[in-house]
Amino acid sequence: MRAIKGGHGLHLVGTVRAAAERGAVIDGEMLRLQARDLRGQLRRGMESNLIVFVVDASGSMAARDRLESVTGAVVSMLQDAYQRRDKVAVISVRGAQPEVVLPPTGSIDVAVRRLEGLKTGGRTPLGEGLMLAHEMIQREHRKEPGRRALLVVLSDGRATGAAGLDGSRNAAALIQQRGLAGSVVIDAEQGKRIKLGLAKELAWQLGGICVQLEHLSADALSEVVAAV
């Protein structure tokens, strides 16, 4: 991509330019270089990624919209990420306990089959869902330490499961402390006059960022993930 100090190999043009900016002189046909002139190459990474979605599937229409957006984003990402061998996983947060509805996979066929016709409604065991994601990320890290992980949470930050709000806070703190994944929270608190700001608080606890989307869609979600 460009020349940097300490990069890969030798970036010849960048090294010569650095020497010229320093005021190096040409002696005969030789350019006198110093160690500080050396530049290497910054390369665009082709590392594989693990993207874990934790989706609030409680409620009705809003939850259905979130699941449809995640399904579309998962398919789009897998289509674009063949060469990087990316994996995507989805955890649905609803009812008494969260559920891994899509284990880590790079298969579009598997993703479409597993994400079809998911149920919505019930309580929101958010803390339990975050712990499930944490365990998955740790397990995948042990198998493939070089794979980068990103946790994407679609939620308004409410936690009405058995662990409550304290459970989600403790799980988020553990994820941040372990440091195996970057985090982004997509704020699902839409259309309310009084906003509690729990999604922003959750992002802070995870050590990640909070994003508010005017319209949630597969394309918008894919763009957020690609930009992180």
UniProtKB/TrEMBL annotation:
<comment type="similarity">
    <text>Belongs to the Mg-chelatase subunits D/I family.</text>
</comment>
<dbReference type="Pfam" id="PF13519">
    <property type="entry name" value="VWA_2"/>
</dbReference>
<dbReference type="GO" id="GO:0016851">
    <property type="term" value="F:magnesium chelatase activity"/>
</dbReference>
<feature type="domain" description="VWFA">
    <location>
        <begin position="50"/>
        <end position="228"/>
    </location>
</feature>
<dbReference type="InterPro" id="IPR041702">
    <property type="entry name" value="BchD/ChlD_VWA"/>
</dbReference>
<dbReference type="InterPro" id="IPR036465">
    <property type="entry name" value="vWFA_dom_sf"/>
</dbReference>
<protein>
    <submittedName>
        <fullName>Magnesium-chelatase 60 kDa subunit</fullName>
        <ecNumber>6.6.1.1</ecNumber>
    </submittedName>
</protein>
<dbReference type="InterPro" id="IPR052989">
    <property type="entry name" value="Mg-chelatase_DI-like"/>
</dbReference>
<keyword id="KW-0436">Ligase</keyword>
<dbReference type="InterPro" id="IPR002035">
    <property type="entry name" value="VWF_A"/>
</dbReference>
